[in-house]
Amino acid sequence: MKRIFSGVQPSGNLHLGNYLGAIRNFVALQNDFDCIYCVVDQHAITLWQEPEVLRQRTREVTAGYLAAGIDPKTSVIFNQSQVAAHSQLAWVFNCVARIGWLNRMTQFKDKAGKNREKASSGLYVYPNLMAADILVYKATHVPVGEDQKQHLELTRDVAQKFNNDYGVDCFPIVEPLIQGAATRVMSLRDGAKKMSSSDASDAARINMTDDADAVAKKIRRATSDSEFLPDASVVGPDGQFTAEFRQARPEAANLMTIFAALKGEELSQAVAEFEGKGFADLKKALTDVAVASLGHMGAEMKRMVNDSHYVDSVLRDGAERAQALAEPIIKEVYDIVGFLRP
Ligand code: TYM
């Protein structure tokens, strides 16, 4: 049976990349599968977080899940720190994963920056905790944006090595689900950079809580080029923009990708719509579709965060259910490893 697990860090504003790359897919999967969606607060503190802000953002991500349409009755929604089995399994995985594997993680290199000596050790072993998040439920499928692909490869390696070392068939080899038209949404200011909550400029991203005016302003100011929008020759046989086009005109590729994803249409259809037109036409249409799809979610999120009783009750209930799922699995692992249960 398929079991879905995924998580989002409460370390900044939820943005359009999180929505199109991940959360929207979480919603689509919940009707067919057993889904567990986590707010990964322990991952967030690998970089400094103000405690009060972390609490607030944990509620905000939860509200984002709910406003996007995840049903807390069918799916399990909870925050990571409330289920101790994640940390328990992460320690075991710290002893399974090899340092050489962690040294290859590009996200660590990006986030640690030049001064690696000053990065927290948590940031370094972060992928082991991520593997534990998934495998402590024996989840089989993980919906994520493209930037998480390398971490999921490490999760597969960890599962495989654990199974081999102990001669068991305990953990499944997970499949990433990198789906949808926009698996890598780029910054509005620089089409070569990923849209990210850590970008110093708020104008680089559309936040899920931005109101119509903010969305319109950010799209209007988004970086553009001076050429007309292209014809269908820039769409490859896989239905995606060709690498040449993305490299030559990253901003045009990004805005058209976002437009098609929000509108729920094929890229080729969006390209046909704007062929020979200028950026102004695209930006106007994109603003309309972005406001129409995000507007109600942002308002709903703000309402839920202001009255947090409901959000807190969802997290409490989810933590109990997650705990019940994780408990027998961590016990099984402890027995395999040889931890005495006197
Ligand atoms: P995080 O919190 O950075 O992002 C949450 C999800 O949003 C996706 N995403 C994007 N997708 C498309 N374009 C973008 N610009 C963009 N930015 C973010 C991410 O791919 C992710 O799916 N390590 C994870 C959180 C995590 C996790 C897990 C995920 C912890 N444990 C277990 C899956 C399973 C992270 O930092 O995501």
What does this structure look like?
With 342 residues, the protein is mainly alpha-helical. The protein is built from 14 helices and 5 strands. The two termini are 33 Å apart. The protein binds tryptophanyl-5'AMP (TYM). Tryptophanyl-5'AMP is lined by residues 5-9, 17-18, 21-22, 40, 43, 130, 133-134, 142, 144-145, 147-148, 151, 183-185, 194-195.
Low-confidence stretches: none
The global form is globular
For CATH, the homologous superfamily of the largest domain is named as HUPs
Going across the biggest sheet, name each strand in turn.
Answer: 1-2-3
* CATH fold annotation of the largest domain: Rossmann fold
Oligomeric state of the chains present here: single chain
Report the strand count.
5
Rounded to the nearest angstrom, the radius of gyration is: 21 Å
Largest sheet: 3 strands, parallel
